[in-house]
Specification:
The chain is mostly beta strands and 238 residues long. The chain contains no helices and 16 strands.
């Protein structure tokens, strides 16, 4: 029988999955069980080998039974609490597997709700050589997040990331605004003759996470500042 259980369980949810990692102990393997109520109310039986999908107790379902310190529970219900219990066990040699059933590693996490709908509308229109006016209408009172850049490629906002105005989204985009759609400001201090691309997401907050919509895009091009004659181009910089 192993001497110690694993430690440091970390769980990261989506709307239908929960991924987990933990720190291994002296054991050869680890039995990960998810269940819908806590405590699990059952323990694994020595000499019995469990596989993914097997049941344990009244609500327990085996996620993995391997030496890997990572797992993903799939096919979960949206916006639902799930509990996890992890037992260390040794399986090589005579009379295995042997499970350590005292003080197993436990934790719980709720899956995320479904993403909200995109903003009802989102538009961008240049009003001067250095300003683009933005307008958006949120969905069901949900706040929005707007990002911009000068190429039309944006990353996907991560539910576990902490965003603020001026921060970057992994994959592309700098955040211009977060809040109620009615407070969306115009984008100022821009270069002339430049196309600016924007993307707006509605989001909802679920615990320490934020869930974002697919996103609605818009773009506008600032006009070129006209040349006032006489104008001399000496090509000094070429």
């Amino acid at each position: 029988t192993p001497l110690a259980q694993p430690t440091n369980l970390a769980l990261v949810p989506t709307s239908t999955t929960i991924a987990g990692t933990f720190t291994i102990s002296d054991a050869e393997n680890y039995l990960v069980v998810r269940h819908s109520s806590s405590p699990l109310g059952a323990t694994p039986v020595d000499l019995k080998r469990y596989a993914a999908g097997d049941t344990l107790g009244s609500t327990g379902i085996v996620v993995t039974a391997t030496s890997t310190a990572a797992f993903t529970a799939t096919g979960l219900s949206v916006d639902t609490n799930y509990f996890f219990t992890i037992f260390a066990f040794n399986s090589y040699g005579t009379n295995g597997p042997k499970y350590l059933t005292t003080l197993p590693l436990t934790g719980f996490k709720a899956t995320l709700p479904n993403p909200p709908a995109d903003p009802l509308s989102f538009s961008a229109a240049a009003s001067s050589y250095s300003q683009i006016n933005l307008a958006a209408t949120g969905t069901s009172g949900n706040p929005i997040m707007v990002a911009w850049r000068t190429v039309n490629t944006f990353g996907t906002p991560a539910p576990d990331a902490t965003y603020a105005v001026g921060a970057s989204i992994y994959g592309g985009g700098r955040i211009l605004y977060m809040g109620d759609a009615s407070g969306l400001p115009n984008h100022t201090g821009l270069n002339d003759a430049t196309t600016y691309y924007y993307k707006a997401w509605c989001y909802i907050t679920s615990g320490e996470y934020k869930v974002y919509s697919t996103g609605l895009s818009a773009n506008a091009t600032t006009p070129m500042i006209p040349v006032t004659p006489p104008y001399v181009q000496k090509f000094d910089g070429v």
